[in-house]
Amino acid sequence: MAELFPGFDQRMMDGDGARIFVRTGGSGPALLLLHGYPQTGAMWHRVAGQLAEHFPLVIPDTRGYGRSEKPANDAKNLTYSKRAVGNDLIAIMRALGHQTFHLAGHDRRERIAYRMALDHHAAVSKLVALDIVPTIEQWTTINSPREMVNVYHWPFLAQPHPLPEQMIAANPDFYLDWTLASWTGSHDLSLFSKEGMASYHAAIRNPAAIHAMCNDYRAGATCDVEHDWVALAEDRQITCPMLALWGDAGIPGKNGGGPLAIWRKWASNVRGHAIACGHFLAEEAPDETLSAMLAFLKEDAA
What is the domain-level CATH number for residue 90? Predict the structure, then answer.
């Protein structure tokens, strides 16, 4: 998928327990971009070129996704905890010479991003969250039939192996296409590029990737929840400046009080707003997303 990121380098790098596929390009203060489910780092291709004019970008396929390694899970799902995946990324950023960096995450990988901001607060200088609220907050909003239907994939993908794996593997292209289309504002695939879809299809056709993605959700129903509860009990806060953006037609925007009110329980310096789109901000509304990110990330830059 090199044509999606012209001029970028790509390589495999050692994380903290997994080999990670990484794209890099640009100059200035570093910006780490994390993709969502069921996608890969390719999701950033519509905004990466302009972001790279201001920041050296690091765009991984995170542990278990895309072309990165898919290690065996453990009984407590800690291998796929957001803390473990975040430790991969801290190791990679340090290996690239970035002791501090800006961080932006979409969907599942923003769960890694906010965990990194809590666990490694000295490393993350600014945080951008795209269409997401913290894991425990999402679970606690599933309290009606309508909400359960909207987020059916949370309990489905967290079911014990091999139930969800077998069902997805029976027709992975259909599952991917249905899932992506159902989360867009237009409820179709028209907004996605041919090259981006090729990346997403290639990833989900790999049974090991399907298994790893399910392990991601199993962690989200177990150890990730425990880690969130501990942070709340200890009154730990995200202390770096934070920007929350969400699609006005997306699921997080329909949570009680909205994403901004929820994030203010977790972050001491957060602002944000809705964008007119569904779940996939960087692909559905790249201009608006890019504008908001640049205004926030470049603010106060010397």
Answer: 3.40.50.1820
